[in-house]
Amino acid sequence: MAGAGSGEGDEGLAIGEDGLARTAWAMGSEMMRQYYDTEWGMPVRDERGLFERLSLEGFQSGLSWATILAKRENFRRAFADFEPDVVAAFDESDVERLVQDAGIIRHRGKITATIGNARATVALRAEGGLPEVIWSHRPEATPVPRSMAEVPSRSPESDALAARLRAAGFRFVGPTTMFALMEAVGIVDTHVVGSHRRGSSGVWS
User: Fold this and answer.
1) Catalytic residue ranges
2) pTM above the 0.85 mark?
């Protein structure tokens, strides 16, 4: 959606007041524009960073990304900055604390899944670690969408990643959620052609 003072073209691009073209959803708010301009689609290759983003994508299921992004600092505080070893040690008292935390999404299933996913992340180190598993599903080519309608919501690689993580004990990691993760951390580039951010990750030329 184009924000105030911006024009949206036929190709799913929004032109901001700064004259720069962005994929249209980035213009929903200043928060979303900042996220789009500085972080979304840039490579994340460290375990903590990937665990955080996997966790937030899981919490986003059924909600808007803007809702999650607005609560991101609260999530970091609640989940020990998403340090997998610390979250893996959370117990039932932590679950009850988190269920009562109005600063995050108080969904017991997603909270317990995040703790379980932290334990699965720690266990996965014996098989190369979470970054190796996630990045091993990078496709041979990235989508080249020329409109929002051409941006896929899943792929064979996201299907395979979801299956791999589920087999390792992860939850809330369905194919659509994993494709969103792949977009967010630079494994695929789904910036609409013409966006000033297209190709900025260095992963895809």
Assistant:
1) 35, 57, 65
2) yes
